[in-house]
């Protein structure tokens, strides 16, 4: 499974291809790297790549997904951008709904509860569906006053990201 890592201003897609002992094979933005990597102490790693040795120190910051990365010559701020991080960013920015009329979830999950029925009158801010994703339950609310015209899912359904869930007209 690939993750994105933000290193300074650069966003790189990183995927672990194979790991056997200290030998690690990774793909970074479609380029493959074969590394010999050893943790020499907590947060400090020795990396051999193409016969060259690099020392890397990872210092966890205020989040388990944010680090200060130090090498002999450079320091970087790094952040792991995984599915949970993308979900939280979307949730915090309020961009979970595709439109004012169609309610969607930005990531896969499970429908926990649908407190409305077809034909229900809803007001802006009313909860119309509750979805569990990444061990969190999210309430999706009506973005406008209207009538529930379509409910595309049922309680307990497993859903895909960006799948239409409820339509309000």
Describe this structure as you would to a colleague.
It holds the Pfam family Biotin_lipoyl. The strands form 3 sheets. An 8-stranded antiparallel β-barrel has the order 1-2-3-4-5-6-7-8. Strands 9-16-14-11 form a 4-stranded antiparallel sheet, with no helix packed on it. It has a 4-stranded antiparallel sheet with strand order 13-12-10-15, with no helix packed on it. The chain is built from 1 helix and 16 strands. The protein is mainly beta and 169 residues long. The relative contact order is 0.13. The chain folds into 2 domains: 85 residues, 2-Layer Sandwich (Glycoprotein, Type 4 Pilin), CATH 3.30.700.30; 70 residues, OB fold (Dihydrolipoamide Acetyltransferase, E2P) (Beta Barrel), CATH 2.40.50. It is elongated. A hairpin with a 4-residue loop joins strand 7 and strand 8.
């Amino acid at each position: 499974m690939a993750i994105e890592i933000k290193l300074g201003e650069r966003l790189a897609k990183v995927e672990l291809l194979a790991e056997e002992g200290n030998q690690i094979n990774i793909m970074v933005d479609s380029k493959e790297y074969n590394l010999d990597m050893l943790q020499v102490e907590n947060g400090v790693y020795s990396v051999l790549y193409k016969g060259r040795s690099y020392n890397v120190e990872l210092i966890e910051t205020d989040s388990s997904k944010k680090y200060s990365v130090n090498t002999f010559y450079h320091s970087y701020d790094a952040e792991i951008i995984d599915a949970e991080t993308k979900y939280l960013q979307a949730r915090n920015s309020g961009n979970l709904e595709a439109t004012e009329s169609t309610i969607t979830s930005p990531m896969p999950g499970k429908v926990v509860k649908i407190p409305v029925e077809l034909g229900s009158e809803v007001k802006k801010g009313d909860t119309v569906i509750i979805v569990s994703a990444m061990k969190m339950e999210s309430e999706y609310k009506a973005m406008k006053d209207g009538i529930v015209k379509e409910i595309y899912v049922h309680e307990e359904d497993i859903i895909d990201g960006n799948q239409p869930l409820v339509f309000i007209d």
